Amino acid sequence: MQGMGRVVSVHYLPAILLLVHALCGSVDGKREIPVGAIFHQVPDHSYESEIAFRYAVERVNMHEKHFELVPIVRYVSPEDSFRTERKVCELAAEGVTAVFGPSSLLTAGIVGSVCKTLEIPHIITHWDPEPLGGIEAELRAMTINLYPEADVLSRALADLIVDYSWKSFTIIYDSDEGLMRLKDILQIHGPADAPITVRQIDDDPDYRPLLKDIQSSGESHIILEIRPDRILELLRQAKEVKMLEEYQSYIITSLDAHTIDFEELRYSRSNITALRLMDTKSFDIKNAVHDWEQGEARMKRPFRVSPEHVRTESALYNDAVKIYATAIRELDATEEITPARLSCGSKNLRQWPFGLRIVNYMKVKTEHGITGPIIFDDFGRRAHFHLDIIELSKDEGFKKIATWDPTHGVNYTRSQGEVYSQIVESLQNKTFIVAEKKDGEFLEGNNRFEGYSLELIDGISKILGFQYRMELVPDGKYGSYNKVTKKWDGLVKYLLDRKADLAVCDLTITYERRTAVDFTMPFMTLGISILYAKPVQQPKDLFSFLSPLSLDVWIYMATAYLGVSVLLFVLSRMAPADWENPHPCKQDNDEVENIWDMCNALWLTMGSIMGQGCDILPKAISTRLVAGMWWFFALIMLSSYTANLAAFLTMERMDATIESAEDLAKQSKIKYGVVMGGSTMAFFQTSNFSTYQRMWASMESARPSVFTKSNDEGRDRVIKGKRMYAFLMESTSLEYITERYCDLTQIGGLLDSKGYGIAMPVNSPYRTAISGAVLKMQEEGKLYQLKTRWWKEMRGGGQCTEVPNSSQENELGIGNVGGVFVVLALGCFCAFLIGILEFLWNVRKVAVEEKVTPWDALKAELKFALNIAVTSKPVHNTLSESTASGKSSLRSKSESRRGSELAGRGHSVRTAASLSNLDKSGLAFDKH
């Protein structure tokens, strides 16, 4: 900034210019139009703005042909309202057509009131809040403000915070006026959101105690609403207390943040963002700076400023003169505008007739200046404007990363590839501290760790090119929030305390944890399942081949076997077709035989059920029907048996008692629990599903406690529980355990769906890059290879195979095959009826042939059929020769019974019975 001496020399310019005009007059024929400006007597703030105002007037005069703006400048103190009123009245008396400035709210209000009374345009370039009672159009009728409208500027800051996903933040401000600027920011949080902390700094230049308090609170997002001259010192002290690390982010609300020299802070790791009203690379601002430097050089006053460091107020003064000159030019073309000397204390108060017309024209006129598009609303406020969102970089200082406007909000100008490249570049010299959950003994050095997590972070580090150091959290917890103490523990606390950059383990991504830390995309998906002990294996059974059929089926089969054999034997003795000639070649043979004794009947049924058949077959319809029914029955039973035999011979017999979470919830005998403070516990605590609510109530009320400190403790409790304890845990850990402990198994499916992620502090700049590395490993199949390696190959993995379900589920009972027995019974019953009919038909035929009564024939045939020891009988071809008794033969020799059916049966079994046996068997009847 310039020294006091230079400023004093500038103060002589008005007198010099007035003297020149008095002596020379309007030599070029231009009409003189005086314009007034009031600046504060604060050199650092006013010097550059006054230069911008004067040389903007000079440039207008260079291009105008009909009029010339004559600047008249006055100086006041920011707090001196009385003198300010005198100065503005002096300007009115000199016939100024507009008053520019001043920049304080107090003095600008006085000037605006006088200008309103005299109807002189009042143009200001500073922040001006809306009054509490609302804007009165009449009071602001003559005021034009080129500074962004207060509410719209506050909305821009709010949009930026929302875009950055800041859930909580701390505001540091130095004046009540500054806090008023953040009205919209204070309103974007609702009652349920994280609280916003507001801290005010006083005139004490030591900000370290305040910064340490913010650091101890764990807050990493800070908004600086302080004067530009305080910003650098505050950030310098923040660096001393380690508040400029990579996880702290700052937003500077001042539109002059770009004018500060951040050279000493360019290599800090924090994200420092600011807003800027102008494009510092535009031709307009470079041209204006050139005018300033050349003009001051002519006056022998060295002045240097780069376009990147031009103050916002200076640029606004340049644009204010430009838009006012445009209004004068275009209105003067229709009616000549003439200045008028006005008096503040006159009894006959006069107003300038052109003032209101000029102001109204400026309100509807759209211009484009150094500060972008200039559009006013009906109250003369600049409601539409563009802002550059700039970020401090180590290479270029402040760099434009996005733009904002009231219509489109935040719009990024850099690509995701540029962001990713910048992050990866910053990782090259970074050594991450990676936190692990402590399990077992304490280890030191990366080489003494092994496991999935280590290989995962090692693969990521090779992709991104960073170093890392593993550390274990002392309490060995994942991280849960204590609502009483309002603090986190475990890995989450380690990250919040900035003791680690990353947390890598089986850390589940939950909504609650997501509010405290950031996560990468999931590197593994999972769900909650049930770990339970397998049923006790039954001892090996020598007769396992009997397992495909239940015991009752075997009993029914044996009963059916015996019943069918007896029925076949009885029916064959009753059926004439089954009595055959033992010598087919001797057609005059006087006896027939029945080969179906009990042994042959048993053999036929046995051969059928074994699938081998028999060389002898029944002849009668009834016996054939019985045999057919039995063959059908045997075929079905044999098929069912062989279909299930192979599975049963290789299957362990199990006796599972639970199959799902619903089964657990319905009973009270088997206890179940989870890890205390883990995400699985939180799942049951917060679930709205009735089954899980009932399970949580059961776990919470169980005594002794069913909760464990770790998964390993839960695993051991399941093993020792003898199927009286089940453990609910995440499926990935469960799979790891069941691959090594073959007496444990997973019961049911997944109760939910979630993922493991790498955690890091909120607003970590490395989240995008690390998520990209995880995605790359997933696409290349490396994550699958890692899981296979550590789940199924390393540390005893892959020892256990899946055991099929209980054999009893595949065992066929009477309910499965009972229909076959019903068919067999119906067939046998039909065969029995047919056999009775065949027997009665034969009795009738014998009665006719032998000329005896049917009853006598029935008794004789039935008596013979029941004599199971006899397997042959005479053909009845001769009668008894006893004439005294008048007995006659029952059968005629002329009929050979079933002679044709005996052909080919020479191999039939023959008996040793003789004709003498016939008398003993009682097959001859006496005539009476």
From TrEMBL:
Q: How does it sit in the membrane?
A: Multi-pass membrane protein
Give start and end of each Ionotropic glutamate receptor C-terminal domain: 431-793
The cellular location(s) given in this protein's UniProt record come to:
Postsynaptic cell membrane
- Signal peptide (from-to): none
Write down the superkingdom of origin. Answer: Eukaryota
Q: Which PANTHER family does its entry note?
A: IONOTROPIC GLUTAMATE RECEPTOR
GO: which molecular function terms?
A: glutamate-gated receptor activity
Cellular component GO terms held in the UniProt record: ionotropic glutamate receptor complex; postsynaptic membrane
Q: Which family does it belong to?
A: Belongs to the glutamate-gated ion channel (TC 1.A.10.1) family.
Keywords carried by this UniProt record? Cell membrane, Disulfide bond, Glycoprotein, Ion channel, Ion transport, Ligand-gated ion channel, Membrane, Postsynaptic cell membrane, Receptor, Signal, Synapse, Transmembrane, Transmembrane helix, Transport
Q: Which cysteines are joined by disulfide bonds?
A: 742-800
InterPro entries (UniProt xref): ANF_lig-bd_rcpt, Glu/Gly-bd, Iono_Glu_rcpt_met, Ionotropic_Glu_rcpt, Iontro_rcpt_C, Peripla_BP_I
Site (Crucial to convey clamshell closure to channel opening) found at 658
* Protein's name according to its UniProt entry: Glutamate receptor 1
Which residue ranges traverse the bilayer? none
